Amino acid sequence: MKLKNSYFFTLREDVKDEDSASSNMLCRAGFIKKSSAGVYMMLPLGMKVMHKINAIIRDEMDKTGCQELLMPALIPEDVYIASGRREGFGHSMFALKDRKGQDYVLGPTHEELFAIAAKMKIQSYKDMPFSLYQIETKFRDEPRPRYGLIRVREFQMKDSYTFDKDEEGMDEAYAKQFNAYKNIMDRLHLNYKIVRADTGVMGGLLSEEFQALTPIGEDTLVLCDNCDYASNIEVSPVVSTQNTEEEKTLEMVETPHCKSIEEVSEYLHIPQNRCVKALLMNVKDTLTICFVRGDRELNESKILKLLGANEINFADDELIATSNAVPGFTGPIGLNAKIVVDQEVLKMKNFCCGANKEGYHYINANPKDFKYDYCGDIVNVLEGDICPVCGGKIHFAHGIEVGNTFKLGTKYSKALNLQYLDANNTLQYVWMGSYGIGPARAMAALVEQNVDENGINWPKDIAPYPVAIVIISDRDEEQVKLGNAIYDEFVQKGIEPILDDRSERPGIKFKDMELIGIPYRITVGRKAKEGIVEIKPRIGDAIEVKAEDAFNTLRELLNN
RNA sequence: CGGAAUGUAGCGCAGCUUGGUAGCGCACUUCGUUAGGGACGAAGGGGUCGCAGGUUCAAAUCCUGUCAUUCCGACCA
Predict the structure, then answer these.
(1) Residue A44: helix, strand or coil by DSSP?
(2) pLDDT at A367
(3) Nearest nt (C1') to A28 (CA)?
(4) A256/A264 Cα distance (integer angstroms)
(5) Hey, which residues does A420 pair with through a beta bridge?
(6) Distance between CA atoms of A33 and A24, rounded to whole angstroms?
(7) Distances A550 to A459, A470, A547 between C-alpha atoms, Å
(8) Which of A212, A206, A211 is nearest to A235 (CA)?
(9) Counting Cβ atoms within 10 Å, is residue A219 exposed (0-12), middle (13-18) or buried (19+)?
(10) Which of A212, A238, A243, A525 has the smallest C-beta neighbourhood within 10 Å, fewest atoms?
(11) How many angstroms separate the CA atoms of A420 and A126, rounded?
């Protein structure tokens, strides 16, 4: 690309309304531009990077024997009603009507259509295994788009689907895809962790996430100091220990105006982890009161799973009035409401909890003092908790979910009646897996991991162009001639460079190439007449080479 | 969906309290000087002040409504 006569611009100042290093830099460097909330234009430089990322993804998918196709984005709503997911996605689905009044949605993910496609092919067990993928635009009406390309409402996703006749086959297909995902992450040079995760709205048997590590990541990852345990906090089990001290006598004490657990803890000089707090929730319009250790927080996925519910909210005053609970002083003893107790609470002794009486708490409460309806692990782990695998200590990290793999089992084949005849001539359901990667998220995550005060620092294979040839002065004929000659040689030999042939001062050209993150710069300057140019990496010192050696030297640098 | 804020030139902002010729920096155009790390001088071009309604002789400014964007929550692959 020759910059003169190209669509190329950079911004000197930070961009308002961009809230992360990656989105700010990508906007300043002219890769992307926000169009509306959570919707971006992908500009030419951004497209270059997307193509490189997608090429790696396609290569690894093709290697597993996965075949590429393309599904529509515009899909009749019925398809999702049939699978039972229309309700599950709810408002996060973009919905519209055609001129005849027919209901359509814009696809948020495509299990249904792939199952329908599979139906056209699968009749017998001999028709499997096979796998399909696409790179397509997905639409999800996120309540709160954020962090540039990281949480958006319209985005490209590579999604693949595997079809097998039994669980064993699915496991094998999963392993192949999983391995391809590892290769993709490695080739993208992402710093990532693979963690166990909740299956969420996808359903199924197993979900693992490929998480790019960065402090702005929206997911909390639970890692062990000692072993390689790695899990998304939403499914990390809490390992609790039985308190063995002797039970004391239950006693009601005055705690005037102490509503929060912090206030109670401070007033009574009892640490928060020796208190039990109440969370007054609304589950299916029933007041559901959860009791957890004072310093814990409720884990939404865990409690929904325990109760078999889809949604949980805080209870309103009206709902609270259906019981004798006193907000701020709610305790499990003598409480007439649906009670869910965290398993850890049952191992506590002589704890403090609300007395269901304004201004009073109990001390020395014990599990034998109250009844409950449900018990389970319903809280988040904390840093310093015990690793469920090795007993070591756990710590947190934050990640961006770049990829996700699911063993779906027969959930969708059952919903959509995807069956085959086995060797005994009986109908069986197909076993499916689904696998997603967000290429633009990967791009944003890469920038988050590779950015400094001068701009982006792309990995060599991902950069929009691996090298920029900078002509110091466009009024120096020899420089212009040599710069163009080197450019032509590179193009002819298969490396596509940028040629900065603009009439700008050198400083501007250097700054721009650093901002957009070109890994190497060939500077054609004052020694051009001697046939000597400089090669400078994005970070590091320049070397001088003869112009005729520039290509080979650079190829070496790119390959090492 | 709750709480808060902001919409003024391509980008970043001031002006609004106290109504009276629409401004600054960057970017852009022309000329000159400059030329290996975001130059300097001079002269210029560019804006339905988010939109609609109201008050007023007069509205970027005051009032009402509305839309959009952002932040904190809730929510979320």
Answers:
(1) helix
(2) 95
(3) B11
(4) 9
(5) A428
(6) 10
(7) 20, 13, 5
(8) A206
(9) middle
(10) A243
(11) 9
Task: Using a 7 Å CB cutoff, list residues 436-475 of A near strand B.
Answer: 436, 438, 441, 454, 472-473, 475
Residue type at A408 in one-letter notation: L
Strand B at less than 7 A from CB of A354: no
How many Cβ atoms are within 10 Å of A262's Cβ, its own excluded?
13
For residue A490, give Cα distances in angstroms to A6, A365, A530.
19, 78, 20
Cis amide linkage into residue A439, ω under 30° from 0: no
What's the confidence (pLDDT) of residue A260? 84
Residue nearest to nucleotide B25 (CA to C1'): A13
Distance between the alpha carbon (CA) of A479 and the C1' atom of B44, Å: 33
CATH 3.30.930.10: which residues of chain A?
A: 42-73+112-235+396-447
Domain with CATH 3.90.960.10 in chain A: 251-376
Which residues of A spanning 225-254 put their CB closer than 7 angstroms to strand B?
none
Which has the closest alpha carbon to A298: A380, A224, A357, A229?
A: A380
pLDDT of residue A316: 80
Return the exposure string of A36-56: e unless at least 16 CB atoms fall within 10 Å of the residue's CB, then b. Answer: eebebebbebbebbbebbbeb
Q: What is the pLDDT of residue A201?
A: 65
**Which nucleotides on strand B sit less than 7 A from a protein beta carbon?**
1, 11-13, 25-27, 34-39, 68-77
CB atoms within 10 A of CB A499: 26
Tokens of A55: 């090429």
Arch. (CATH architecture) of A42-73+112-235+396-447: 2-Layer Sandwich (3.30)
The answer to whether the beta carbons of residues A289 and A280 sit under 8 Å apart is yes
Q: Which fold has domain A467-559?
A: Rossmann fold (3.40.50)
User: DSSP label at A475?
Assistant: T
The pair of three-digit structure tokens given for residue A401, joined into one six-digit string: 């979910």
CB A432 within 8 A of CB A408: yes
CATH code of the domain occupying A251-376: 3.90.960.10
Residue A181, C-beta contacts closer than 8 angstroms, at least 6 positions apart:
A60, A210, A403, A405, A435, A437
Contact A420, A431 (CB under 8 A): no
Q: How far: A7 CA to B8 C1' (Å)? A: 28
Mean pLDDT per 10-residue segment, chain A (560 residues): 93 86 92 91 95 98 97 94 86 90 93 94 97 95 88 94 97 97 97 88 83 90 94 92 94 89 90 92 88 90 86 82 89 93 95 93 95 93 93 93 94 92 97 95 94 94 97 95 97 97 95 97 96 97 97 96
Tokens at A553, concatenated:
């030297």
Amino acid at site A21: A
